Amino acid sequence: MQYPKDIITEILMSEEEINTRSKEIAQEITKDYENKNLVLVATLKGSVPFFSSVMRYVNLDCEIQFIRASSYVGNTTLTTGKVKVTSPTEFDVKDKDVLIIEDIVDSGLTAKSLFDYFNERGSRTVNICSLLDKPSRRIVDVKPKYVGKVIEDKFVIGFGLDYNEKYRNLPFVGVINKKYI
Ligand code: 5GP
Hints:
Blueprint: E1 8-13, H1 15-32, E2 38-44, H2 48-55, E3 63-72, E4 79-86, E5 97-105, H3 109-120, E6 125-133, E7 146-150, E8 156-157, E9 173-176
Residues 46, 71-72, 79, 102-111, 155-157, 161-163 line the site of guanosine-5'-monophosphate.
């Protein structure tokens, strides 16, 4: 089944732009994490496409791991303010350099919880790499080290980002048509 033709009102990041930015960011990571103990951590499920785009261009000996952080519930576009962090598989981050790969940093609550989670577990450094950043929505002070694109306060879908668990498989990022919310 195809998605409705008018599901997107505006494309904010095309497939080509995502590819280009992923390569550029991976090159920066490769430079910045040389001789470090890098663990790339994907946040499920939203960051999976961006994670795989970036990690294959990171030219370093590194670990990959997965974590789940949820701040949104059901089919709403509003944050609940509470973030639950769970690890599907146990992994050790003691004295390691954790780079969390996110789909989007919005209020910053998820990022802050992930920072706390890894700091409590003894990581040497913790940083965030996010495909998108909505700084105008921030309620806690977090700044991703790497950002694919800064966007305005609009609800976006595609390239991992969902609405009610749909649209994650769109190959670009676009603004959802309000009539479907
Ligand atoms: P934060 O904790 O920074 O408020 O929110 C982070 C999470 O909220 C993201 O990982 C994502 O799941 C969700 N989120 C925030 N803004 C958007 C958006 O514009 N579109 C979608 N689909 N999810 C969003």
